[in-house]
Amino acid sequence: MALLQIDNLVVEFATASGPFRAINGVSYRVNSGEVMAIVGESGSGKSVAMLAIMGLLPNTATVTADNIMFDGQDLQALSPKQRRTLVGREIAMIFQEPIASLNPCFNIEFQLNEALTAHTDLPRKARKDRCLELLNDVGIPEAKSRLKSYPHQLSGGQCQRVMIAMAIACSPKLLIADEPTTALDVTIQKQILELLLNLQQQTGMGLIMITHDMGVVASTADRVVVQYKGNLMEEAPVLELFESPQNPYTKALLSALPENATGDRLPTVADFAGGLS
Fold it and tell me: Is 179 part of any domain?
């Protein structure tokens, strides 16, 4: 049985000009211990689909699906309170732009402790010890002193590590990483990706990596889902997708990689538009 099973997910937003369909009947399967990448350009609905699963979309959104099953539980049948209990404990998400996601008014220990208080029964001393353990786990130097730091006192890479620490605080079964290397320099990007993969391998959790970077996909994923304008265009094991892409949009993404350039300019999606649905 898949850890996460989504069938025919549809997300629509109410707008002044009528409903806008952001996700058009996509389906996913993620197994324990698997790394699945969801790839596509900005606006393809990658983050919206995951926020729908997490129950974090605004009231203007309407979410329907034939199935949203997690570890044998029907998420659509849960009350809002039950879903909040599950999210953050068994399903966790690392959001884009870590500095914007952390609260500038509270120090790092307070924010880590907040997650532990909400989702565990650990006593105060054990929570404090766990906060320190988490910062050490994600490789933050001088972790004990950093507990009292505020987000603005940390680098972008350190803030991202704090976000990862918050996400894994309750040992989730599924971790969703939404563009986890955005706005980080190349060296830090590599460190963050290695950290995520090491944590995934150590815990056996499922990992969904949302990205538009095919290089990240090649270096991290077991399986790839390609999205375009809210539609699932192709799904395949990572090696199969890179060696033999079937969908025109997938071919466009791969052809746009600098190493695949064959002429004076890189191809664009418009060059393949005739084959896109």
Answer: no
Taking the C-alpha atoms of residue 46 and residue 44, their distance in angstroms, rounded to an integer, is 6
pTM of the model: 0.91
Q: Is residue 270 part of a domain?
A: yes
In a domain, 125, yes or no: no
Phi-psi region of 184 (alpha: psi -120 to 50; beta: other; left: phi over 0): beta
Q: 161 Cβ partners below 8 Å, 6+ apart?
A: 135, 138, 139, 140, 192, 195
Can you spell out the DSSP letters for 91-118? EEEEPSSHHHHS-TTS-HHHHHHHHHHH
User: Does any domain span residue 199?
Assistant: no
Q: Roughly what angle, to the nearest 10 degrees, separates helices 186-203 and 156-168?
A: 10
Q: What is the CATH number of the domain that holds 70?
A: 3.40.50.300
Query: Among 180, 181, 155, 152, which Cα is nearest to 168's?
Result: 180
210 within 8 A of 46, measured Cβ to Cβ: yes
**Residue pLDDT, tens place only, 48-85:** 999 999 999 999 999 999 999 999 999 999 998 888 88
**CA-CA distance, 39 to 224, in Å (whole number)?**
7
Picking from 136-145, 247-256, 261-270, which range would have the lowest pLDDT averaged per residue? 261-270
Distances (CA, A) of 134 to 192, 197, 246, 270: 15, 16, 42, 46
Domain count along the chain: 1
Q: Does the pLDDT of residue 11 top 70, yes or no?
A: yes
* 161 within 8 A of 138, measured Cβ to Cβ: yes
Spatial distance between the Cα atoms of 225 and 236, rounded to a whole number of angstroms? 7
Rounded to whole angstroms, the Cα distance separating 106 from 149 reads: 9
Mean pLDDT of 16-35: 95
What pairing do the DSSP bridges indicate for beta strands 223-228 and 231-237? antiparallel
